[in-house]
Specification:
single chain; about 375 residues; alpha/beta; Aspartate Aminotransferase, domain 1; Aspartate Aminotransferase, domain 2; about 40% helix; binds 4'-deoxy-4'-aminopyridoxal-5'-phosphate; binds glutamine
Length: about 375
């Protein structure tokens, strides 16, 4: 059997969620809410699962949903993408990322990623015949621009950034994005900006998007996910915004990988976005309240909390508890001995940081789940 991904096994998310189910632990590992989407969105979907909406959608996505995406961009970044040439809907952000990489990367090309990085970038690059150059983020999970510069070669085709950042919750500044542009400007390098947590930015900060800088936007694929924004990760619906020429390259691949997204889901999302703009406007404070509650509940624990400025993830330093365990061992110990499923972050690195003692917990949970989890975590000395 050909083995195109010899070093890749089953993803950490699948393994930890399975383990949580087997051990009946609280599952704070894989990132997903344990509550439903707003009832109006579920009602809207019900309407579209009846007759008349069960066939293929347009390859590029339902026009009404593309329009809603374009309007959110106009509101936030002051320009209106052309829905005919610059916006596409996909069955999830993961599929969008995969197609962008397949569209751009040729055998021998290099893609720069920043570790710790989301687990799909590297395998998708390998399947295209390329190779990821992993540049470590700094200890506060910001980009070291000198190291980035040094990683560029004449084979560099693409750089992938992801802010708000999974797994750390770090955010990026507009100044950093300007620096990114200045560095790549002389080269033929494009940007894939994974912004699936674009609305989950806390403490009064503004999300900095590649779409906020016209010259960077012209070179970028911005990727979003309705799953994160509307508490429907299982609906697997995402989007891409890119300049017309880039969008053309993307669509060539998308039409043969996905062809289109799911029809009734696109209708329901478009209606809901149009009728309930308050959902998006309140999302940051909704999740900030969860972060604040979780952190407050964990205050008496022996874990040290790292700052989370975005996403729905919180990093915990456990060095004061079990410094003898690496993070994979720690997550096993936590799930088996204390009924908490977490994600060890070393799996997101090409070369894990020696002595790093961090696990990731997802706080997209009800107050009751967060309280129960915190109670268990506070009992660990
Ligand atoms: N990128 C990042 C950084 C993510 O955390 C996720 C969600 N797991 C995705 C992409 C994938 O999003 P989707 O579920 O829409 O495919
Ligand atoms: N993005 C989710 C996380 O980081 C997992 C998605 C998946 O399971 N592929 O937890």
């Amino acid at each position: 059997l050909p083995n195109k991904l010899p070093t890749i096994g089953t993803s950490i998310f699948t393994r930890m969620t399975q383990l949580a189910q087997q051990t009946e632990a609280l599952n704070l590992s894989q990132g997903f809410p344990d509550f439903d989407s707003p009832p109006q969105l579920l009602e809207a979907l019900k309407g579209y699962t009846s007759q008349g909406f069960q066939q293929y959608a347009l390859m590029q996505g339902l026009p009404a949903l593309r329009e809603q995406v374009a309007l959110t961009i106009q509101q936030r970044y002051g320009w209106l993408p052309d829905t005919a040439t610059e916006v596409a809907i996909t069955p999830g952000a993961t599929a969008a990322i995969f197609c962008v990489i397949q569209a751009l990367v040729q055998a021998g090309d290099e893609v720069i990623v920043f570790d710790p990085c989301y687990d799909s970038y590297d395998p998708a690059t390998r399947l295209a015949g390329g190779m990821c150059i992993h540049v470590p983020l700094q200890s506060d999970f910001s980009i070291d621009w000198q190291r980035f510069k040094a990683a560029i070669s004449d084979k560099t085709r693409l750089v992938i950034i992801n802010f708000p950042h999974n797994p750390s919750g770090a955010v990026i500044t507009l100044q950093d994005l300007k620096t990114l542009y200045d560095i790549i400007e002389p080269y033929n390098i494009l940007v894939l900006s994974d912004e699936v947590y674009e609305y989950l930015v806390f403490d009064g900060l503004m999300h900095a998007s590649v779409l906020g800088l016209p010259e960077l936007a012209a070179r970028s694929f911005m990727i979003g996910s309705f799953g994160k924004t509307f508490h429907v990760t299982g609906w697997k619906t995402g989007y891409v915004v890119a300049a017309p020429e880039l969008m053309q390259a993307f669509l060539k691949v998308h039409q043969y990988v996905n062809f289109c997204g799911v029809t009734p889901i696109q209708h329901a999302l478009a209606d809901f976005m149009q009728q309930h703009p308050e959902h998006i406007n309140q999302l940051a404070s909704f999740y900030q309240a969860k972060r604040d509650l979780f952190c407050q509940l964990l205050q008496p624990s022996a874990f040290k909390l790292l700052p989370s400025r975005g996403t729905y993830f919180q990093l915990l330093d456990y060095s004061a508890i079990r410094n003898d365990l690496d993070d994979v061992q720690m997550s096993q110990w936590l799930v088996h001995e204390h009924g908490i499923a977490s994600i060890p972050i070393s799996v997101f690195y090409e070369k894990p940081v020696e002595g790093q003692r961090l696990i990731r917990l997802c706080f997209a949970k009800t107050e009751a789940t967060l309280q129960q989890a915190a109670q268990r975590l506070c009992q660990i000395a």
